[in-house]
Design brief:
114 residues, alpha+beta, Glutaredoxin, 4 helices, binds glutathione
Length: 114
């Protein structure tokens, strides 16, 4: 790791987005803590809603830095920490990754998850 600030992933055990962030953290070899947040609960903790005003999961915190939206979380994990690169550098491969992520976001999430 480039620095030793604590890493906390706040998410929901059944969330595919949370799982994606966990896979990225494991691939990079980043030690982290977790906090269970049920985004469907009526009583989501107020301090969580300061980190994610849209009441979704996950949120990654690294020291004082909070980020939500899974693609942004993955971008941060890849850029801020040492370890194997999560994204290819070659233009066509990088573009295919973006295409597949977009397809799954646009067309896969609802039928496969909801
Ligand atoms: N675009 C967001 C989507 C986050 C999202 O929708 N997460 C789901 C769990 S996978 C959630 O919190 N759902 C709660 C709800 O729909 O109220 C991201 O990429 O992180």
């Amino acid at each position: 790791m480039k620095n030793e600030k604590s890493v906390v992933l706040r998410g929901y055990q059944f969330s595919v987005c949370n799982r994606i962030a966990r896979v990225a953290l494991h691939e990079k070899g980043i030690p982290y803590e977790t906090e269970e947040i049920d985004p469907f609960a009526a009583d989501i903790p107020k301090d969580y809603l300061k980190r994610h005003p849209f009441r979704r999961v996950p949120v990654l915190s690294h020291g004082e830095f909070d980020v939500y939206e899974t693609p942004a979380i993955l971008r941060y994990i890849d850029a801020a920490f040492e370890g194997p690169d999560l994204m290819p550098v070659e233009a066509e491969a990088l573009t295919r990754v973006a295409q597949v992520v977009s397809i799954v976001d646009s067309c896969g999430y609802r039928p496969m998850v909801r």
